[in-house]
Design goal:
44% helix; 15 helices; alpha+beta; single chain; four-stranded antiparallel sheet
């Protein structure tokens, strides 16, 4: 290589070095568009910084303004350029900011206030000039790509922490702890409350003034969307504090939705929604709020009832449904509005399980037995009176254990002392009705509505069988009564069956009985006709002459004898026939016997009516005898009246001894008169009078003829 070429190369090298030196001196920097440059000034005529990290007035130090992508001239003799990447926050994520420079936090602050003018921390100069504070910030960064001055701000994301190292280990330790705390609180994700989870969010704020000792829950502030300081469910911390919010657990809860909340400002705890099922109401006991006006009335001495939002027991219960209720601010006591069954029975419980501690009531009866009485009580709580019950007792379980159990037990112990064991068993229904009536007032005093009291059978202990013996005796007594009643019913049934059989037999013979009755009536009519004719004939005969009378008397005697013999024969025949029929009826059966008896009676009645139709048997005989006697006198030629009459001892020349004719006539007339008058006793006054009249007439006639 010749000297000329060597010189050329030297000059070229010198030129390149000089050019490069020139570029270095003028500070040529090429910044990619996906990066920014943080400028650090080495020296300045304005001097160095004392306390600040960022030089707002051109001092030596980190400059507030960033150098974006492109070609820039920053002499290394004056500036040091730190190239950092742009920060990208993924969608649905949250990034946190830590400020290295700014004003110190107030004693009541834990986070730096939000500076709206700083454009999400991208304008350091505006941040510091408007009072930005050092430390963790209240504002968070949502999804997007940002150009941050990492000398001023430390950006903490879920995947990476962006900052410009300043070489202090303590700072790195602080940043690491801060990132870990946010991660533990799941602060890089928004608060998401889904409806199907039935959860609500309880918010605890970690910044702002303290609440004070008189309250345990911070009151709700800034929840009105139309208000000036609406904090939009704690997503705007600055508005929350300006609205008067306090540090601590908040009364306001987060319902279903998505919330971007700074977890360094507020943490969220998830609790279940309060569900009040059908058949219950919820009585709210609020632990927070102002003192409200008592609405329970002057007669109620068990506490105050206040309106919703005030401290105390709310007067209006919550109806069935789901409620986003903050259980740290109060409690909701469920009160059943359906019928509640309490069982004083061991090992048995009602549906609501309020009677788990109840057992049978031990009694001492009037006759010194000691049974155990099982009970069941059904009562109801009016939903409008549920707050009064809770105010008085705390909850329904305490109501049962502390009031209803001793009250009901004492009542039935008193009842047991007035009843014997048997009365207690036999009068259970009356005692049950009486107890239901009398205990309604006691339950009403406690704002309860008694529905019914049910009493079981008294029982004895395992070692005492006296009660069982009493029950056995009662059962035996009742069994005997039932058997007696059964026998009586069977006897009645047998009698009814007998009556039925008789009725059936009568029905079968009804035709015969009807015919017999008709025949009896016919014979009775015939008899009456003959009787009337006979009476007319008797009057005619009475007016006949003595000869005709004598003739009638003789015929009557003869006919009487004949009729008598015929009647006796007929009676004997009838008797034999009746006995034969009775024997026949007896062998056939009770039904046939009854029929035959009725037939025999009918025949007897017919025979009797036949005789009566002639005016009686004696009257018929008398008529026949008189006829025969007249015929005999006529044919024999014997004088009816003796020519010679011998009277002995008679008054006025009358003989006291009647002749044969007079005797016969007197005998027949006496029988005739007796039969015609229907008089059976010959010594009756009427018969004697009639006989005397006839005899007197006959004697007068005899005397006249003699003369």
């Amino acid at each position: 290589m010749d000297a000329a070429m060597l010189n050329t190369l030297i000059w070229v090298g010198v030129g390149v070095v000089g050019f490069l030196l020139f570029l270095w001196i003028i500070g040529l920097k090429i910044i990619p568009n996906n990066q920014v440059a943080i400028v650090e000034k080495w020296w300045s005529a304005k001097g160095s910084l004392k306390e600040q990290i960022i030089a707002l007035n051109g001092e030596a130090g980190y400059q507030p303004d960033l150098v974006r992508g492109g070609i820039h001239f920053l002499s290394p003799l004056v500036y040091k350029v730190h190239t950092v990447p742009l920060v990208t926050i993924p969608q649905g994520k949250i990034a946190y900011v830590f400020s290295r420079d700014g004003k110190s936090l107030e004693p009541t602050q834990t986070l730096g206030k939000i500076i709206p003018e700083c454009n999400n921390f991208q304008d350091v100069r505006a941040f510091l000039k408007n009072g930005g504070q050092k430390g963790p910030q209240r504002g968070v960064i949502r999804e997007g790509t940002y150009a941050f001055n990492l000398a001023q701000f430390i950006i903490i994301t879920e995947r990476q922490t962006y900052y410009l190292p300043l070489g202090t280990k303590s700072e790195q330790q602080t940043i690491m702890e801060m990132a870990q705390k946010i991660s533990e609180r799941r602060g890089f994700d928004p608060v998401i409350i889904q409806g199907e989870s039935d959860l609500v969010g309880i918010v605890t704020v970690h910044d702002g003034p303290s609440l004070g000792k008189d309250n345990i829950i911070c009151p709700t502030v800034g929840d009105d969307a139309t208000a000036e300081h609406y904090h939009n469910n704690f997503q705007d911390p600055e508005s929350f504090l300006k609205a008067g919010g306090f540090r601590g657990r908040q009364y306001q809860v987060l319902a279903d939705g998505t919330y971007f909340i700074n977890r360094l400002f507020a943490t969220v705890e998830y609790i279940k929604k309060t569900v009040i099922p059908v058949g219950f109401v919820g009585v709210v006991v609020s632990y927070t709020g102002l003192k409200g006006e008592d609405s329970s009335g002057t007669d109620y001495k068990h506490g105050e009832l206040v309106k919703a939002g005030f401290r105390g027991v709310w007067s209006d219960p919550l109806m069935p449904g789901k409620y986003a209720f903050n259980t740290y601010a109060g409690s909701i006591i469920q009160v059943p509005t359906t019928n509640v069954i309490l069982k004083w029975i061991s090992n048995q419980n009602g549906t609501h399980k309020y009677d788990e501690n109840l057992k049978e009531v031990s009694l001492i009866t009037k006759d010194a037995f000691e049974p155990s009485l099982p009970l069941s009580v059904v009562f109801h709580i009016d939903y409008r009176k549920a707050p009064l019950v809770i105010q008085r007792f705390g909850d329904v379980k305490m109501l049962v254990d502390q009031t209803l159990d001793p009250m009901v037990s004492a009542y039935f112990k008193n009842i047991g002392q007035t009843k014997t064991l048997i009365e207690l068993i036999q009068q259970r229904n009356e005692i049950q009705d009486l107890s239901s009536s009398e205990m309604k007032g006691k339950f009403d005093h406690y704002n309860l509505e008694l529905e019914e009291v049910l009493i079981g059978t008294p029982t004895s202990s395992k070692n005492d069988n006296n009660i069982e013996q009493i029950l056995t005796q009662l059962r035996s007594r009742q069994l005997a009564k039932e058997q007696l009643q059964t026998y009586e019913n069977q006897q009645t049934a047998a009698e009814k069956e007998k009556e039925l059989r008789e009725a059936e037999a009568i029905a079968k013979q009804q035709t015969s009985l009807t015919e017999s009755d008709i025949n009896i009536r016919i014979q009775e009519n015939h008899g009456k006709a003959d009787l009337m004719k006979s009476r007319q004939d008797a009057e005619k005969i009475q007016r006949l002459s003595e000869a005709d009378a004598y003739k009638v008397k003789q015929q009557a005697e003869a006919e009487a004898y004949r009729v008598k013999q015929q009647a006796e024969a007929e009676a004997y025949k009838t008797k034999q026939t009746g006995e034969a029929d009775a024997y026949k009826t007896k062998t056939v059966g009770e039904a046939e016997a009854d029929r035959e008896a009725r037939v025999g009676i009918s025949k007897a009645i017919a025979a009797r009516e036949q005789v009566n139709a002639y005016g009686g048997a004696q009257y018929k005989i008398m008529q026949d005898i008189m006829t025969s006697f007249a015929d005999a006198v006529k044919t024999s030629g014997v004088d009816i009246v003796p020519k010679t009459v011998i009277a002995a001892g008679g008054k006025d020349g009358e003989s006291n001894v009647p002749n044969a004719f007079e005797s016969l006539v007197m005998l027949l007339l006496s029988d005739k008169v007796a039969l015609s008058k229907g008089v059976e006793n010959e010594s009756s006054p009427e018969l004697k009078k009639l006989r005397d009249e006839i005899l007197s007439k006959m004697r007068a006639k005899d005397i006249a003829e003699e003369k």
